[in-house]
Write a structure and sequence with these properties.
By secondary structure, this protein is an all-alpha fold. The chain has one domain. The chain contains ten helices and no strands. This is Nitrate reductase. GO terms for molecular function: metallochaperone activity; unfolded protein binding.
Length: 191
């Protein structure tokens, strides 16, 4: 189960993920961006800082080329979270519809040409939506995070294989999920 309070406390960092998982813009790498979304007390700061420092070793043109090569030309490192598991299966269409339904429930309207499992869109949803007090939040956000967790597992493996700077960014995202999962106490205690 998701700890919705912890997820809400960490929602600001999802803005950073959105900015750095969409096509790069020079302003994304301005020093104020890092300060705006995350501070050094956040448990995932070390991963984000490693990503940040590594990306600053490249020119903007190199970053753009790396982004396109990594996310647009490699099937293994797609930003579509259901693709690795379901590819073009009928189940994928149903899952995309379910995700879109969650977005609509909270008032997020997608562009018609976008698929609902696009990782930057999913991060934007978590960044922008206020789910506090909504009885549907546990189930709705549970679906979103389950899809993201599953999809980023495959993405992380591919990025590690490519020795990509984006590895640390996705690692930070996955560690953020992990920090928001409730550790349920054992039902049976043995003495």
């Amino acid at each position: 189960m998701i700890n919705l309070e912890k997820l809400y406390e960490r929602k600001r960092v999802f803005g950073f993920f959105v900015q750095h998982l969409t096509y790069p813009d020079k302003l994304d790498y301005h020093p104020s961006v890092l300060e705006e979304y995350i501070d050094s007390s956040n448990p995932v700061y070390e991963y984000i800082k490693r990503f940040w420092d590594r990306m600053h070793q490249y020119s903007m043109e190199e970053i753009e080329e790396m982004y396109v090569h990594t996310f647009d030309f490699q099937k293994k490192s797609t930003l579509y979270m259901t693709y690795s598991k379901l590819e073009e299966a009928k189940e994928r269409g149903q899952m995309l519809a379910n995700i879109k339904s969650v977005y609509q429930t909270y008032g997020l309207h997608m562009a018609n040409d976008e698929l609902s499992d696009y990782l930057p869109l999913m991060c934007e949803f978590l960044y922008a939506v206020d789910w506090r007090g909504d009885p549907r939040a546990q189930e709705s956000l549970g679906l979103i995070l389950a899809v993201m967790e599953d999809g980023t597992y495959h993405l992380l493996k591919a990025l590690q294989q490519f020795d990509s700077p984006y590895y640390d960014l996705i690692k930070a995202l996955r560690e953020t999920f992990k920090a928001c999962v409730r550790q349920e106490a054992s039902i049976h205690e043995h003495g």
